[in-house]
Automatic annotation (TrEMBL):
It is found in: Membrane. It is an enzyme of class 2 (transferase). This is histidine kinase. The keyword Kinase applies. One of its GO terms (cellular component) is plasma membrane. It comes from Castellaniella defragrans (Alcaligenes defragrans).
Length: 454
């Protein structure tokens, strides 16, 4: 049983959801932290303002009586246990404070502190337990009166933490609602974005279904630039497959047609009781074999063109072919020159196909050469250009094109089937190259073949 394939839509939505939740959570934590720091700083600033007011209003007479020229104006100082308190005290026994003045909001309580908590010239900030055991944020300042018997006074202002905790809590709730709505909106937007972004893939699936059901022979329509190259490559594969199928059908028909003649000759000879039947059978079998070899070579080359990574060095292959040609044309004493073939050149294809093409060309050159056959090769813009020329009589332009037709020969008096150069051109075409015959520098014909270089 095939495991279900993971959904691209769900994958994108999952990543978006995780990132959205993480981003919103981090943003909420950062905003909440900044707001808390702002409220705390605002509270300390307010306490510092009240402490400055107490300092400015403080009066001490010669008898040591402490008073304020003006009471703090905040009405919360006048309501018992309102959460905002002030106190003026002096150290007692060096460790505890003796209360002198206090706000009405303290009622019968006092603000605890120690003299050692306050450093001269600086305000001290402390968290203490205030009236009713509630936590307080307290700010203390040490003052040294210029007159009177009192050397040191401690001014204290305290505020219940609920004064800033409640706004923070209210802000947290509002922030959570706002960020929740934002997260839902971002998820909804991501859902619509993913749906809109994947819509071309849905259209592509519909086109593929039409292709599979035979309602179309290629994928039609415009797609986004990220998908269009895939569509074009797929259409190219379909086109090549269709061409390959058509070529296979044509080759099968050609092969069947080519085999009909030898079979018909042998059948007629057998029915007529021709005494030359053995010779006819041998000739027609050889003709059929050449046709089969021709079509097999085309089929092999067509398959090799689709294979990547093929690399066939050409110099060793040419040297092997020259050794064969030396034996085939041994009685003529021909000289084959390969000095113009660099050792590093390689053909991007099957070595057997290269031997098929160059073997036919070298054999043809050997038939017409007087004394010499020269082979040169070079690489230009990713292509191999191979030239095989002889010092024979050469060919006119009309006859040069005619010899590439299957079954046609430049001279009917020379032995051969007329398939050799036709195979060369067909194989070169299959590899995306070409073959032609032109006048050579040695006085004879020169066959030029271009093939893909490795």
């Amino acid at each position: 049983m095939t495991a279900p394939h993971p959904s691209l839509r769900l994958r994108l939505l999952a990543v978006t959801l995780v990132w959205t939740l993480l981003s919103v959570a981090l943003a909420g934590w950062g905003i909440q932290r900044l707001f808390r720091q702002h409220i705390q700083a605002q509270l300390q600033s307010e306490l510092n303002i009240h402490l400055n007011h107490l300092t400015a209003s403080l009066q001490v007479d010669e008898q040591g009586q402490v008073s304020l020229s003006a009471l703090p104006t905040d009405p919360r100082f006048g309501h018992p246990f309102s959460g905002l308190y002030w106190q003026i005290s002096v150290p007692s026994d060096g460790t505890r404070f003796a209360q002198l003045l206090r706000s009405r909001s303290l009622w019968d309580a006092h603000l605890p502190a120690a003299a050692g908590d306050v450093e001269p010239g600086q305000d001290a900030v402390a968290q203490v337990s205030g009236p009713g055991g509630k936590p307080l944020q307290m700010r203390l300042r040490e003052v040294h009166p210029a007159e009177g018997p009192i050397d040191t006074l401690i001014l204290s202002v305290g505020a219940d933490e609920a004064l800033w905790a409640e706004p923070v809590s209210r802000f947290d709730r509002m922030l959570a609602v706002a960020l929740g709505i934002l997260a839902l909106g971002m998820v909804a937007a991501a859902w619509m974005q993913v749906g809109f972004g994947l819509r071309p893939l849905g259209r592509l699936r519909e086109r593929l279904a039409a292709l599979r059901e035979g309602r179309a022979d290629r994928i039609e329509g415009e797609f986004p630039m990220e998908v269009q190259p895939l569509v074009e490559d797929f259409n190219l594969v379909l086109s090549r497959n269709a061409q390959g199928l058509e070529r296979a059908r044509m080759q099968a028909g050609n092969l069947a047609h080519a085999l009909k003649t030898p079979l018909a000759v042998m059948a007629n000879a057998a029915q007529a009781g021709d005494p030359a039947l053995p010779r006819l059978v041998a000739e027609q079998v050889e003709a059929a074999r050449r046709q089969v070899d021709y079509h097999l070579a085309r089929a092999r080359a067509a398959a090799a063109v689709r294979v990547t990574g093929l690399r066939s060095p050409i110099l060793p292959l040419l040297q092997g072919l020259v050794r064969v040609m030396d034996r085939v044309h041994a009685e003529r004493g021909l000289a084959y020159d390969l000095s113009g073939v660099p050792a590093e050149l390689a053909f991007r294809g099957e070595a057997q196909d290269f031997q098929e093409m160059l073997g036919n060309v070298l054999d043809n050159a050997g038939k017409w050469a007087r004394r010499r056959v020269r082979v040169t090769a070079r690489r230009t813009d990713g292509e191999l250009s191979i030239r095989v020329e002889d010092d024979g009589p050469g060919l006119s332009p009309e006859r040069a094109e005619m010899v590439f037709e299957r079954g046609r020969r430049a001279d009917e008096r020379t032995p051969g089937s007329g398939l050799g150069l036709g195979i060369v051109r067909d194989l070169a075409d299959l590899y995306g190259g070409w073959a032609r015959i032109e006048a050579g520098d040695l006085g004879g014909a020169r066959v030029v073949i271009t093939l893909p270089a490795a």
